[in-house]
Amino acid sequence: MFQVRTDLAVEARELYKENKRQEIPGVEVEKSQVEDAIEITRVKIIDEKGSQLMGRPKGSYITIEARGLKSADADLKDSVSKVMAKELVRLLPKKKGLSTFVVGLGNWDVTPDALGPEVVSKILVTRHLFKMYKKTEDPTMSSVSAITPGVMGTTGIETSDIIQGIIQKSKPDLVIAIDALASRKMERVSTTIQISTTGISPGSGVGNLRKQLNEETLGVPVIAIGVPTVVDAATMTNDTISMVIKALKSHSKKGSDFFNILDDMKDNEKYALIKEVLEPYGANVIVTTKEIDKIIIDISQIIANGINIALHPGIDLKDVNRYIN
Amino acid sequence: MFQVRTDLAVEARELYKENKRQEIPGVEVEKSQVEDAIEITRVKIIDEKGSQLMGRPKGSYITIEARGLKSADADLKDSVSKVMAKELVRLLPKKKGLSTFVVGLGNWDVTPDALGPEVVSKILVTRHLFKMYKKTEDPTMSSVSAITPGVMGTTGIETSDIIQGIIQKSKPDLVIAIDALASRKMERVSTTIQISTTGISPGSGVGNLRKQLNEETLGVPVIAIGVPTVVDAATMTNDTISMVIKALKSHSKKGSDFFNILDDMKDNEKYALIKEVLEPYGANVIVTTKEIDKIIIDISQIIANGINIALHPGIDLKDVNRYIN
Amino acid sequence: MFQVRTDLAVEARELYKENKRQEIPGVEVEKSQVEDAIEITRVKIIDEKGSQLMGRPKGSYITIEARGLKSADADLKDSVSKVMAKELVRLLPKKKGLSTFVVGLGNWDVTPDALGPEVVSKILVTRHLFKMYKKTEDPTMSSVSAITPGVMGTTGIETSDIIQGIIQKSKPDLVIAIDALASRKMERVSTTIQISTTGISPGSGVGNLRKQLNEETLGVPVIAIGVPTVVDAATMTNDTISMVIKALKSHSKKGSDFFNILDDMKDNEKYALIKEVLEPYGANVIVTTKEIDKIIIDISQIIANGINIALHPGIDLKDVNRYIN
Amino acid sequence: MFQVRTDLAVEARELYKENKRQEIPGVEVEKSQVEDAIEITRVKIIDEKGSQLMGRPKGSYITIEARGLKSADADLKDSVSKVMAKELVRLLPKKKGLSTFVVGLGNWDVTPDALGPEVVSKILVTRHLFKMYKKTEDPTMSSVSAITPGVMGTTGIETSDIIQGIIQKSKPDLVIAIDALASRKMERVSTTIQISTTGISPGSGVGNLRKQLNEETLGVPVIAIGVPTVVDAATMTNDTISMVIKALKSHSKKGSDFFNILDDMKDNEKYALIKEVLEPYGANVIVTTKEIDKIIIDISQIIANGINIALHPGIDLKDVNRYIN
């Protein structure tokens, strides 16, 4: 059967509600608003049941949404960075002299997949300075290392192996992994940031990672930060078909053959149609915006700023906006 | 009413045939095959009637299609360059000492729109050498100049004004304008090259040009070369809806209410649906492939090679493949 | 005879003083200090004599020097942008609804020559908006267009022809031309901005322009903004030889054969030596810094900011630092 | 005392001969010519004495020089790739199912240091295919993985630690490390390829690596491939000073005060002069060519081709020239 493709916990929940018309069990949801331009949704998967229904590991999924990010409002960008930093700080291990390893997943040669590498290029890296001056902590900054491991197609090596190898040598306390995501709705592309404590799962993201990246596989806590940059074409097709059927139903009496045809069409045949629509399109078809190149640059700045001010107490946004290009 | 968006003459014709179930009047079509991997379709709009039905000016539209271009078959790439060069040579003004001005339309900061600039970066430019050595003709090469004028959003100036201004100074005999196009079908993205003698029309291409570029506006003949790099999201949605309706019709007796509902749904309501589907997606939604960055590089090489060997008799493909990166 | 290569008026004057041990006639010089981190030198060539001795047209040459720019001090960068904007405003034609055309000279594929194109990519372009809304003036912004014409080697067309052609179509009141320069001293590379009212002369800059760009050739006033990004290798060699000779002289009695040999060596033989040193190095040898890539990005931001706040009264530095990446 | 900076064994030997006017002991040298456009010099350091005098570990240093590479002769480029491949094959461990890890050292944001990353981007990576199809060997290709580890300033981690970590996970049989070098003579920049079996030493290369990369530190054999992309400014200054002194000596009688002054100037004072010349230039001053951006692209293609045909018996140059952009 066709599965709507989404990397966002909020959407997985949405889908459940749409189909089952009830709140999803084993999942706690809490919404809040910042300056009424930014909406924060905290989805917590608390048990196995919830995990299975959501198709995601137990843990926290924080979603920061700001529709306004589509326009070039620099103040809103700064607010989002600050909100993100605040959420991040809350998730950081409470440890003096924390050492963080930032990993930019994805392929820098594939624009919608280049978010991770772009963010890493804007991270204030300090680990080598701590080594050089033989310091373990500092009031203004913490030890940060960063890498863009590339993708298996260009390195020939599992991304998880590269990261594990570097971790064994550099011994960070924490990994922050950034990845481009697929959303179910175009309106969330580039306007939504998901922060989760559960790592990154295979096949998620734009660039199909194949192995888990989480505390279990890496040996240190993993905070995953993702932003949708594309919508899966099959997902958009599925939404379109559902809308056509809904529209037609409104023309027909409940119980009529017509209505019934529409009803049992729903699943099996619907999937055949999706395939029929997309077959000629070949694999790797994505729905995105013409502005994706610029969007990747803008949103990566927002996220890098958020990480930089969360990890380096001594610097503020005014600095990072100007120091890091 | 909804208009399927396509910049390809072959598709405009396809659409007419699908709806009217007849060949389009005022248009001559001729197909041929090269090494059964490459299909050439020559669409000739011969009168006003045809021009109006096709929504395009009178003239020749040559389409070179090679599905195999999706894979990295270097030999096929070379064949396509040669086929393209042959068609191009046939369209060149018969003049000793021909001087050609190659214009790469589109925005190099927008990947699917960067085809033109990419091609220009690979063109063998020689005009300054002819000037330097005070030559007017040469057996091995012809005078070629090239520019990427940018887009109005980044220059503040109508692209047509920039090109006209440069033409008045550099006095070429011919303009070859390269632009990224929108196709109706994903399978044509990056596998189809359209060469036309009618210039480039407003609103066509990925990067919405606003004024005509043709012999009338520029004062010299214009050969337009385009390759589809995206599919308009509305077009894909429209195709999807049509397929759903077709599928449902197959379940219902001709003449039944159901069948009729489906029939009169066709146009008015269909358009409303398309809008409903795409509204949340905002403007500038495109359907493309994850490989678009690499595709732009590959296809621009094919086209630049075709132009280079067409304009410079003295060089062959072996040279350009190695000299120009 | 060997000519020290410099595009900076302040250095042309320095050289004269070093050789002739007197102030250069026909030239007025005025120095001032800003926040003692920025030094402004106003060189005014007032007559033919001065023009000939300086090897430059009559007019004003304003040099803004800030050694601190080598380090990443964001506050100093902002101060320099503001100082530059102030000087620029003083040079702008006093006209309501001024329309400016910014030209980024140089080759974006040659790092030390890419300053102009980099600046243009950060300019706030507004001309098309004025056209769209049929406005001629606005309290917050002025009409700005911008282009990177490329270099003759890649376009096949004289850069001056391209610019003239576009000016004839777009009819600006003013041209601001940005170009990368060669300095005599490495310490001035990336720390010095020269603003002049005399346009740009052939052979100056890193990318050897061949025709004048000034009010006479373009028909509108031209403000040239340049930053040294390289030192000519011959110049550095010449300085080295002079130092060796000076050092040796300090060992020998005035009038001794030794001293005399050193003295008449000075010119003729010195030049032979320079050639001998550089011959194996081939043409196009430059002395620059390993950081040149980053420097081009930083300094282009400073200059673009200066131009943006000078031409758009409504925006301040805080905005441009964040809006334009 | 001043040390001429060179990463080329052939130059270290040159220097010794210039100063001591004798062949260097403990070193075997063998020259050969290919198509009289390519010169191969094999320097073998055979004992401790030689190692100490050369300031390099014992082992083989193969230098491939082709002055013609300065011009864009595609046939010569291909010949150099083939010659290089042949030398490389001779150095490969004789092992069925050899697995090679290619490492591109240097900083891709610093043009003259970007050689390594550029080469890696053109390497045919296959290791993941061997894993996917569970093969250990193949007649047409061998298992190749590749990475660009970045530099400590951008990752915060010792490059050697990153490489060691990845090696422990991916278990290659061989490392091929590519790095940009500093030459003593501009004529060797971009025209010389050095292949050595001794790994890469600290402080060599343009991008100052800090730890050894060799069989001892990495646990597998290391083949280092380097190309000079810059000349150290101090080296050029030193050469200049020597030439001045040589010129002056030719004017003076052996034994005269003058001659003696020149003689004992030689070392101590010479160094003071070099410092005096370069002080104002600050650190990181390099001498290079204006074409360095293009040169990095061209030479990286030559080297990548050489590696690709050496490691993948099934492909020939025609393929790689067209498949890999």
Strand and helix map with partners:
The structure is a homotetramer of 325-residue chains.
Chain A: H1 9-20, E1 27-34, E2 38-45, H2 48-54, E3 59-65, H3 74-91, E4 99-104, H4 115-120, H5 127-132, E5 143-147, H6 152-155, H7 159-170, E6 174-183, E7 192-196, H8 215-218, E8 222-232, H9 233-249, H10 257-265, H11 268-278, E9 285-289, H12 292-311, H13 317-323
Parallel strand pairs in A: 4-5, 4-6, 6-8
Antiparallel strand pairs in A: 1-2, 2-3, 3-7, 7-8, 8-9
Briefly characterize the structure:
Helices cover 41% and strands 20% of the residues of chain A. Chain A contains 13 helices and 9 strands.
Give a written overview of the molecule:
Chains A, B, C, D: InterPro entries: Pept_HybD-like_dom_sf, Peptidase_A25. Chains A, B, C, D: Residues 1-7 form a propeptide. Chains A, B, C, D: It comes from Paramaledivibacter caminithermalis (strain DSM 15212 / CIP 107654 / DViRD3). Chains A, B, C, D: It catalyses: Endopeptidase action with P4 Glu or Asp, P1 preferably Glu > Asp, P1' hydrophobic and P2' Ala. Chains A, B, C, D: GO terms for molecular function: metalloendopeptidase activity. In chain A, helix 3 packs across helix 12 (292-311) and helix 9 (233-249) crosses helix 11 (268-278). With 325 residues, chain A is an alpha/beta fold. The longest helix of chain A is centred in the C-terminal third of the chain and has 20 residues, at 292-311. Chain A folds into 2 domains: 9-234 and 286-324, HybD-like (Rossmann fold, 3-Layer(aba) Sandwich); 235-281, no CATH class. In chain A, a hairpin with a 3-residue loop joins strand 1 and strand 2. The first copy, chain A, has helices spanning 9-20, 48-54, 74-91, 115-120, 127-132, 152-155, 159-170, 215-218, 233-249, 257-265, 268-278, 292-311, 317-323, and strands at 27-34, 38-45, 59-65, 99-104, 143-147, 174-183, 192-196, 222-232, 285-289. In chain A, strands 1, 2, 3, 4, 5, 6, 7, 8 and 9 form a 9-stranded mixed sheet that branches. The first copy, chain A, contains 13 helices and 9 strands. Chain A is elongated and about 80 Å long. At the A-B interface, helix 9, helix 10, helix 11, strand 9 and helix 12 of A face helix 9, helix 10, helix 11, strand 9 and helix 12 of B. Strand 9 of chain C pairs antiparallel with strand 9 (285-289) of chain D, so a sheet runs across the interface.
